[in-house]
Design brief:
This protein is an alpha/beta fold. Helix content is 40%, strand content 23%. The two termini are 27 Å apart. Bound molecules: NADP nicotinamide-adenine-dinucleotide phosphate.
Length: 345
């Protein structure tokens, strides 16, 4: 079986996903595209030589019976409506983060999916498919470092465009740590506060950079995440879990070691796409395989999307107030608990 995809949003990441499904992965085909900018959709079809219909909007694309699954890669505030419509149209959905920009919208999607009775939406938190994060997860799961007590993480980007704001640090950048870190230790967040260190002179004046987020989980694990989006030297993701018996850390990205002019050097990546390319491929191959083999998807759920929406909202309030913010999550529905139990086996 081939999974026929419709793509809603043919911008930067929409195109990279079209490229991976068309040129690298097995079992998927792009048969329909739409973008609010019609020219973008048309030029994507030409650029990748697709045999795909260009639709004027998501409503008409979702009426196409050839489309089995949609990829939602429009801008964040439009995601929730497209995902809801796609669920109602009986499609599988791969939605890039954020699933929704409000907890209310995320919960509406949760209800719609539960009404279908199986997981039909996968949220694009690709770090869960990264080899390094998977190793961290299995170390914790196998109790190799004892009970986790603290996590120290950092998310550094080389630089940001002028349009990047202080709030985006939480809702666009930190959101990947928000998802990955609670998943690593199988815990939920309780509170967050943010500390602003001395500002770098390398950022635009309106941006507070760097920022230090301090989060606490329900079991008392303290998590520190440094987000430094104009660090100049490269794209660098770090994560160390401190347990009762030892610590475990993400591996450095493999790179050749050069000896030259009396020095020893190793390159640092500069582009997030290179850092997580294998993880992006793995998450989409899993999405395709799950539909083919099980008629349902797996991976990060709409409940994970809800957790991210509530937590990033609390992070923004912590930025605005300078105060610690409680993260009040609703009780996890049995439907999602069951999905987690199966995934944990
Ligand atoms: P982008 O380059 O701006 O692409 C978004 C595209 O969607 C644009 O062509 C935009 O058109 C179009 N669009 C906006 N609203 C639409 C709607 N209602 N229906 C159809 N098309 C619509 O942004 P991007 O960098 O690709 O990001 C897309 C999404 O992926 C974002 O939510 C982002 O957070 C997420 N993302 C995730 C990762 C990751 O690491 N997992 C990385 C990058 C991005 P206009 O330009 O005309 O507005």
């Amino acid at each position: 079986m081939t999974v026929n995809f419709g793509v809603i949003g043919t911008g930067a990441i929409g195109r990279t996903h079209i490229d991976r499904i068309t040129n690298r992965l097995a079992g998927g085909k792009i048969v329909a595209v739409t973008d609010i900018n019609d020219e973008s959709a048309k030029s994507t079809v030409e650029e990748y030589g697709l045999d795909a219909t260009v639709y004027p909007d998501d409503t008409t694309l979702l009426e196409d019976d050839h489309v089995d699954a949609v990829i939602v890669t429009s801008w964040g505030p439009a995601h929730a409506q497209s995902v809801l419509s796609a669920i109602k149209a009986g499609k599988f959905v791969f939605c890039e983060k954020p699933l929704a920009t409000t907890a209310k919208d995320a919960l509406e999607i949760v209800d719609a999916e539960m009404a279908v009775g199986k997981q039909v939406v996968q949220v694009g938190f690709m770090r869960r498919y990264d080899q390094g994060y998977k190793q961290l997860k299995s170390t914790v799961k196998n109790n190799e470092i004892g009970e986790p007590l603290m996590i120290h993480a950092c998310h550094r980007n080389q630089s940001q465009a002028e349009s990047y704001t202080t709030e985006m640090t939480a809702v666009d950048t930190l959101i990947h740590e928000i998802d990955a870190l609670h998943w690593l230790v199988n815990d939920d967040y309780k509170s967050v506060r943010v500390i602003y260190p001395k500002r770098t002179t390398k950022a635009y004046e309106h941006l507070q950079d760097p920022q230090l987020f301090i989060m606490e989980t329900l079991s008392g694990i303290i998590i520190t995440v440094e987000v430094f989006t104009n660090c100049q030297y490269g794209y660098d993701i770090q994560c160390e879990i401190v347990g009762e018996l030892g610590t475990v850390k993400l591996p450095e990205v493999p790179s050749t070691v050069m000896r030259k002019n009396a020095s020893l050097s190793q390159a640092v990546l500069t582009d997030w796409k290179d850092r997580f390319e294998d993880a992006f491929d793995a998450e989409f191959q899993d999405f395709i395989n799950s539909i083919e083999r099980h008629g349902a998807v797996q991976g990060p759920t709409t409940w994970d999307g809800y957790i991210a929406a509530v937590t990033s909202d609390a992070c923004v309030k912590a930025q605005e107030t300078g105060e610690k913010q409680e993260i009040g999550l609703k009780e996890r529905p049995a439907f999602y608990q069951e999905i987690e139990n199966v995934a944990a086996k």
